[in-house]
Backbone:
């Protein structure tokens, strides 16, 4: 994971804080949020949207796999 911006032990927490910052800016600025973006930031915004969709889908699958593994005794729930 050396090519990633966050250390593995805090990547979810750091990403959650960054996403919260984006959401707050979207709520505060409204349509100006998009208007003020340069082309690189606008592209990243679109990619973020698609990654958020993928995150939701894969996290649902992961939760189901985790629950199944706990029920079957393959891993311990904490």
Residues:
């Amino acid at each position: 994971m050396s090519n990633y911006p966050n250390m593995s032990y805090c990547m979810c927490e750091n990403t959650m804080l960054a996403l919260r910052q984006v959401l707050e800016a979207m709520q505060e600025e409204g349509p100006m949020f998009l208007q003020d973006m340069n082309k690189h930031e606008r592209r990243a915004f679109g990619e973020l949207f698609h990654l958020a969709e993928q995150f939701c889908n894969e996290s649902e699958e992961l939760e189901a796999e985790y629950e199944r593994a706990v029920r079957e005794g393959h891993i311990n729930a904490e």
